[in-house]
Design goal:
single chain; mainly alpha; Hydantoin permease; 17 helices; binds tryptophan
Length: 452
């Protein structure tokens, strides 16, 4: 229907390219930095079970809904809601999504900057260049954050400037499989080390006594953040899909890929923590609770790498942080693409100006955060914890009751063989109309109650 009207927009080159790009958006710091910490606190395998329920009952149906809205309209979130209803309210939901993307990216860039700076720090440490190691350790933290978030944002802008198939697709196609291979090699190594067994036990043995309502709500929030849902990132990615693509299947692949990387990353990080403990590194705070995810990834892990011989340490420390920044990069790309597609479609901007102007503005916020990282929590709470489930709820209600699930099913029929006989065809409408909104609604009300 749409897609060709604007040369600045573009399309995916191949089906695999799209799935990898969407999976690249989903797989990020959420999987490797946030997920393992939540598992460790939430009762190991018990948390994973709750998380899987959230992903399948809420995440997957909403993902199919976002992709369908995107492909039906060929537009950014604001334009898409305008195209599908006369309502004045829903374009506003799209705009809220654009704003959430804007703000999430501003702090995500700072954390992504850490991964990049640790990549260099590990290399300098193991190469034994004391001058550079000292230089890094003396650098003011705020300044260091500012430098590395700037580098990260410039890389993101460069890729977005290249457009959908040349930029996003080409980069993720290479990075995604590489990431998985490296993770698995590292697990193979870490699992042979002293202490790993204790980590494996924590990870694989469900402790249901730890699954409080809080933990369930965390699991829901984590599912939204990790699957990149609730702000129209997948409406935007869906808008570059052609009519031959099978949306339910693509959504299933992306959901499974994201879950797999999270579970695999946990299999690395949690045993690695206990390996660190076995070599005398503290991983529990005084309260007896596990240290925060940030401490674990950016403090405990480097210490663990430093107990290794230089070659092994360089290999593992260097690749780990490189890998983490690559995963973050394919996510920052999707976060920037949302506001960029909005100004291209709705305001007629050129892609290049849009990427630099918006990326630059977001970077300005990142620089403020660089010098006051306490802001991360605040922005994260409003725009991820509250913003994403709110967006997801409204998207589900929109598809369920305004656009209607029948129209959505008709759109999905293109590209899907024997669609009307499928399990998805029969059940998806119930999920979008009832199960997802009710579950998200509960989370949302709970989150609000906790805030006030
Ligand atoms: N899913 C990414 C992660 O796990 C973060 C992310 C990228 C995101 N795009 C998004 C989160 C859109 C919410 C919405 O790190």
């Amino acid at each position: 229907m749409a897609a060709e009207q604007n040369v600045e927009r573009g399309n995916w080159n191949s089906k695999l390219g799209f799935v990898l790009a969407a999976a690249g958006s989903a797989v990020g710091l959420g999987n490797i930095w946030r997920f393992p910490g939540e598992v460790a606190e939430g009762g190991g395998a018990a948390f994973i079970i709750v998380y899987l329920v959230c992903c399948f009952l809420v995440g997957f149906p909403v993902m199919a809904a976002e992709l369908t809205i995107g492909r039906a309209t060929g537009k950014n979130p604001v334009g898409a809601f305008k195209a599908l209803s006369k309502s004045k309210f829903f374009p506003f939901v799209g705009f809220w999504g654009v704003l959430c993307g804007f703000m999430i990216l501003s702090f995500y860039t700072v954390v992504a900057g850490w991964t990049l700076s640790f990549f260099f720090e590990e290399i300098f440490y193991f190469i034994g260049n004391e001058q550079l190691v000292n230089y890094f350790s003396q650098l003011d933290n705020g300044l260091k954050n500012a430098i590395f978030s700037s580098l990260f944002m410039i890389a993101t802008i460069q890729i977005i400037t290249g457009g959908v198939s040349d930029g996003i697709e080409r980069v993720t196609k290479v990075l995604m499989p590489f990431l998985l291979v490296i993770l698995i090699i590292m697990i193979g190594y870490v699992i042979t080390l002293d202490g790993a067994e204790k980590g494996l036990e924590l990870y694989l043995k469900p402790d249901f006594s730890k699954v409080t309502t809080d933990v369930m709500f965390d699991a829901m929030g984590q599912a939204f953040f990790s699957l990149s849902l609730g702000m129209g990132a997948l409406i935007t990615y869906g808008s570059y899909l052609d009519r031959k693509s099978d949306i339910p299947q693509a959504a299933a692949y992306v959901t499974l890929a994201d879950i797999s990387v999270a579970v695999i990353a946990g299999l690395l990080i949690i045993p690695a923590m206990f390996v660190a403990e076995a070599s005398g590194i503290a991983i529990f705070a005084e309260s007896g609770a596990l240290k925060s995810s940030t401490t674990l990834v950016f403090d405990v892990l480097p210490q663990l790498f430093h107990t290794m011989s230089p070659i092994v340490g360089l290999l593992f420390g260097g690749t780990f942080f490189l890998l983490l920044s690559m995963a973050a990069l394919t996510s920052t790309i999707s976060l920037l693409e949302v506001p960029v597609s909005y100004v291209i479609d709705e305001r007629g901007w050129r892609r290049k100006s849009a990427a630099w102007a918006l990326g630059g503005t977001i970077l300005a916020i990142s620089l403020i955060i660089s010098f006051d990282i306490g802001l991360i929590d605040f922005i994260d709470t409003i725009f991820s914890t509250v913003g994403l489930p709110l967006g997801g709820l409204l998207i589900a209600l929109f598809v369920g009751y305004i656009w209607t699930t029948n129209n959505a099913l008709m759109e999905m029929e293109d590209g899907t063989e024997n669609f009307d006989k499928s399990f998805f065809y029969k059940f998806w409408p119930y999920f979008i109309k009832y199960i997802s909104p009710i579950l998200i609604g509960i989370v949302f009300i709970r989150t609000i109650m906790e805030l006030f």
